[in-house]
């Protein structure tokens, strides 16, 4: 098994891409720390997982709140559970042109996507340093690498994740901690289900492989980045977009 006994903390794990990562990682032998705001959803997921079910943990964790993140890491530390991998998956997308977007929405997007990636990473450093190595996987977006109409704020929040990934990988490579990002294209989750029909069709047509990505397509790349198969890979942004042109 590719990530046997690796302890992996996933943010926003109850649905979509986070859930697919949890399911694949569990199949491949990981011990999971499932975090998110929907504890019932996390527990349901935990009970459906194949291996180590009794060892997977669930925690309520809102990535916009330092106290909430600290509580989780304090609890893990007190149980001497030190993670090997952090998957910064939690994110939100709200679209509007810059002219129209309200300040509170800008704040919400940046708190979740940018601070919500930086803060768990800060807390993860102690256990990763203690383990003398590990992997941080950030979920960016094709909108962060390429930009898109009506997505200045979402796109710039995802571009910030790319900047963070590149600089942090340089800070941590000497400690054997790898930091990489995945830039998914158009993936079939609740995030894209709510999309305007015309926009949805336009996006679909722009995908070379002519199908929406599945959350599992992203999970497979996360698995590679969490595992020793990528032991010499750091500071990279890996697109998972089926040849999407945007
Ligand atoms: P989703 O909406 O199904 O899942 C997002 C998850 O993040 C949910 O579990 C949600 O509760 C959680 N979350 C949101 N705010 C949170 C907070 N403050 N604290 C803790 N958890 C929070 O969407 P999806 O598609 O699974 O998104 C996962 C990641 O993938 C996001 O970062 C998203 O930006 C990114 N992404 C998704 C793409 C897509 O086409 N679906 C494309 C590119 C990137």
Overview of this protein structure:
Helix 2 (39-48) links the parallel strand 2 and strand 3. The chain has one domain (7-240): Rossmann fold. 46% of the residues lie in helices and 15% in strands. It is globular, with a radius of gyration of 17 Å. The longest helix is centred in the middle third of the chain and has 28 residues, at 103-130. It has helices spanning 16-27, 39-48, 66-78, 103-130, 142-146, 152-172, 190-193, 197-205, 215-226, and strands at residues 7-10, 31-36, 57-60, 85-88, 134-139, 177-184, 237-240. It has nine helices and seven strands. The protein has a seven-stranded parallel beta sheet, with helices on both faces. By secondary structure, it is of the alpha/beta class. Helix 1 (16-27) packs across helix 9 (215-226). The protein binds 1,4-dihydronicotinamide adenine dinucleotide. 1,4-dihydronicotinamide adenine dinucleotide is lined by residues 11-12, 14-18, 36-37, 62-64, 89-93, 112, 116, 139, 141, 184, 186-187, 189-192.
Which ions, cofactors or small ligands are bound in this entry? 1,4-dihydronicotinamide adenine dinucleotide
- Relevant CATH superfamily: NAD(P)-binding Rossmann-like Domain
Biggest sheet, spatial arrangement of strands: 3-2-1-4-5-6-7
Backbone structural class? alpha/beta
CATH secondary-structure class = Alpha Beta
Question: Would you report the number of β strands?
Answer: 7
Shape category? globular
Percent of residues in helices comes to 40-55%
Q: Cα-atom Rg, whole angstroms?
A: 17 Å
Report the major sheet. 7 strands, parallel
Order of helices and strands: EHEHEHEHEHHEHHHE
User: Can you tell me the CATH topology?
Assistant: Rossmann fold
Cα-to-Cα separation, first versus last residue: 36 Å
How much beta, percentage-wise? 5-15%
- CATH architecture heading: 3-Layer(aba) Sandwich
* Poorly predicted segments: none
Number of domains: 1
Query: How many helices?
Result: 9
Mean pLDDT: 96
């Amino acid at each position: 098994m590719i990530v046997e006994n690796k302890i992996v903390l996933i943010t926003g794990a109850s649905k979509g891409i986070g859930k697919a990562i949890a399911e694949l990682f569990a199949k491949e032998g990981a011990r999971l720390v499932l975090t998110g705001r929907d504890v019932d959803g996390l527990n349901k997921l935990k009970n459906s997982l194949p291996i180590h079910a009794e060892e997977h943990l669930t925690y309520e964790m809102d990535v916009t709140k330092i106290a909430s993140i600290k509580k989780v890491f304090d609890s893990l530390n007190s149980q001497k559970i030190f993670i090997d991998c952090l998957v910064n998956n939690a994110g939100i997308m709200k679209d509007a042109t810059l002219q129209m977007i309200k300040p509170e929405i800008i704040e919400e997007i940046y708190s979740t996507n940018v601070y919500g990636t930086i803060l768990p990473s800060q807390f993860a450093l102690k256990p990763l340093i203690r383990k003398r190595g590990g992997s941080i996987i950030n979920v960016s977006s094709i909108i962060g690498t390429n930009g898109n109409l009506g997505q200045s704020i979402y796109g710039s929040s995802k571009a910030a994740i790319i900047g963070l990934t590149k600089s942090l990988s340089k800070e941590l490579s000497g400690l054997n901690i790898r930091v990489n990002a995945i830039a998914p294209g158009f993936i079939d989750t609740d995030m894209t289900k709510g999309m305007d029909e015309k926009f949805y069709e336009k996006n679909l047509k722009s995908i070379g492989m002519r199908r929406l990505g599945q959350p599992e397509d992203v999970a497979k790349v996360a698995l590679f980045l969490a595992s020793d198969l990528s032991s010499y890979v750091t500071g990279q942004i890996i697109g998972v977009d089926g040849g999407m042109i945007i």
